[in-house]
Amino acid sequence: MINEQRKGRPFRKRLANKPQHSVWFESDKKGGFLIFAGVKGTEIKTYAGSATSRSTLDYNIRKAKSRFGLPIDWRLNTLPIIITPTLKETGMPTRQQVRDTITHNHNAYHEMWNSIEAFSERFRETEELRNIRDSYIESLDPELSKAFSDAKDFMKNEHGYVYWNSGWSNCTDYDDILGHYHGVSKWDHINGDGFDMSEEFKPADVAPKQILLDGFKWFDIRLDKMRDVQAAGGLDTSHIDDHEKMILSFLEDVKSRNEDLTQMT
Fold first, then answer.
1. Which of 177, 213, 180 minimizes the C-alpha distance to 195?
2. Helix count (H) and strand count (E) of the chain?
3. Under a CB-based contact definition with an 8 Å cutoff, are residues 160 and 167 in contact?
4. 175 close to 188: Cβ distance less than 8 angstroms
5. HSE on the CB side for 58, CA within 13 Å?
6. In this predicted model, what pLDDT tens digit does every residue of 213-262 receive, in sequence order?
7. Which domains does the chain have, with CATH numbers?
């Protein structure tokens, strides 16, 4: 009797030396990093981008992997680390820690912006980092943010001329307010001035009225300089006089109101 010998499943030979495509970076002699895609260690590679610093390197590597259809581990947070100013076991973060996070996020955004050669792509490609930067700033001291918003609303609704024609209302954003009342800002010239940066970052007790009075503290000096320059050039300065009267009227109204500007005192 002949016993049939069963055959096992056919063995499929694996290719031990099958090329593994990937994305990697190399240091650029001119500074920063160059990103390549292909088979590392061989001549099979193509340029896939660049990065000017570590803060943008990981993000650009993810973009390159997506472009070449390679897997991306999205569980890894390779974007700038955000310190949320909420009470933890170790307490609130210090002013310095908050400042460092603001400047880190701001610098990462601008480095990414500058690393993109196609100008038309810059706004879209930097959206993620821009949202991280802005959302962190907006999360700091919500009561101060509301007071700043209420101050601007009062100007716009009650003193429209000053709102639309003053440098403060047109050029001041919440980041400037954080610098003034907390010593933390993405702008170096308003960081830490007069503050102990080792102190905990705590809410500032500032009302809309105080924000406006502080914002227009030196307006008369600026107008005097403008008036002198134009007068020296033989120009009519009557429009500056009219502008000054409107601001003085606005400030008198502010001083006559309560702290939240809702009632006359």
1. 180
2. 11, 3
3. no
4. no
5. 14
6. 999 998 888 888 888 999 898 998 899 999 999 999 999 999 999 999 99
7. 21-67 (3.30.160), 142-255 (no CATH)
